[in-house]
Amino acid sequence: MLGDVFGSLTLVDMDLEALGTTMQHDEYDLTIGAAGPAGPEGPQGAPGVDPGPVPGFDRYAIALSADQTIGSNGDKFIGLGDTSNTHEVAAIPIPWDGHITTIVGRSSEQCTGDGTVVFTFWLERVGGDPFATDIVCTISAGGPYEGQGCIASMESEDVMTLDLMSVHVDNNGCPSTQVSSVVGFASGSGPLPELSEKSSKMQPRMQPVVELE
User: pLDDT digit string (tens) for 25-36?
Assistant: First the structure.
């Protein structure tokens, strides 16, 4: 019992004239009772806009750039601020086992006419020869980035610690330009869930290693 509560009320007739005050003395039990049972579970909420990273994988971006322009109808390998005629000179090591998932390419000059700038991810496994993979993107005048950029369609190439990587850039008739590229990398074991089927079907295109003019 927490205490007594009293109240009063005024009686009126049908003409709303007061008939006098009548005191009504009521006693209320204000003891707090036990909590009632939990209600039923509500409906599941809508999924979030961003599902977040794939569990078990860390996502990284590996940036590569040229230290000189690539002329019209020229082709070079680029690495970490390096430009070379050969993959071996420009290549950098991969730090962890994982998957290369995509590349993006950017040209400082706008590509016009029928010209293209093609960015191809190259890989050299420990004890193996360099080869061009299927991870490719192409800048063209009619492309979605005003003739200055491209993004590779989602593919996957499994890589191992200390494999060597570079990006080959082939300028096919676009103006002489400075280029850069970013490689998407996911570290972790096992196939990426959204890429496992596509990755299992991929075969690298073996190409001879030649020194470019």
Answer: 555 566 777 888
